[in-house]
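Predict both folds.
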Amino acid sequence: MADRLDELLARMHQLQDELLEELQRQQKRFSYRVLRRRVYFTRRGIAEQRQHLLSLGRYLARANPLHVLTAPLVWSCAVPAVLLDATASLYQWVCFPIYGIPRVRRLDYIVFDHQFLKYLNAVEKLNCLYCSYFNGLIAYVQEIGARTEQFWCPIKHAKRVKTLHSRYKLFFDYGDGERYRSELPRCGGISATWRNRAGTAYARLVSQRHAGDGVMGMLKDYPARQAEQREFVRGETTGGALAPG
């Protein structure tokens, strides 16, 4: 069963990679390229885009009155979104180093590039900016939550889940208490010994197997912990979470 699940997940990731490759091939079709996070169009591409520009006056004249009335409600979500962004970012910057979890790179999820499109007017660009931020933020926070769940409670659900986050494939099977108890401490899950261990934040990064090694033992094994962090990001860490030690 586990092998079948791993096979399906591998196929899913392969399809995602193929989709990204196909999207990259669209660059040639629409005459643009991306360089240092900026999108550049050819002169011909810019000219073609401007043919489809809808002026701000005509855009507003065609707007559905109900869409205009509901716009304030849409934009009211911006305030809690910014608070969520700040809270999640602060949480991972403070807690992830203590847990030994690599921080999520925000720029990989929140992307702004619609402003380079010449067929969008000012209002459309503003709307795109908001949607890009909000949806990118959700993906960013989901990855923070996924890494947190992998560390504290890496157990799959018995009920069907609509979508799976990036760490779900590494979780323990639902009901597999034996493997959960035997492998979670080794993989960095919380335990009474680790929870009550005194010392600095650096000492809290080590797992139970280093409890008696002392400071020199911690320093000696630091390269191995760095390698484990890289495996965590690539999704190669098996079992529960990244081993903090």
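Second protein follows, with its predicted structure tokens after the sequence.
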Amino acid sequence: MENKYCIDMLLGGELCEIGRVTDLVWWEFEKDGILYSLHTQCSFRVTHEGVSVLTRRSIYNIIDEKKDSKSNSLFDKNVITVNCLLPLKVLRVECSTMNDLRIVLSNQVCIEIFADSDVEDEQWRFFMIVDEDFPALVAYSNRVEY
């Protein structure tokens, strides 16, 4: 039997950290002692108490033109605030037919990920961090692949 996972595996786990490398945003989750990562290269929004606190667009909003842009974006500033709320329990996970994700967390935090690029572009990737033999779940706008 081939082991595969689905994004629902996060239910009951915790969001532990959010970060980025260039324009790839990673979301690290832990459940039952196992670490999972969700990588996104599409639009997203994080809300806290109904207010938008972090977006993909903020990666490109530079705070100070004179400083190194590696950690000088509005995203880099705001992700510190969001990470201070962590860990947060995953209360609900929803995935649309177009692979948009909605992850509802404790403390009135919600992550919305929008698969908004062309159908052939990878939107997000979900995988177990420690087990290289476990296949990644890769989502496009019109399908998922393992």
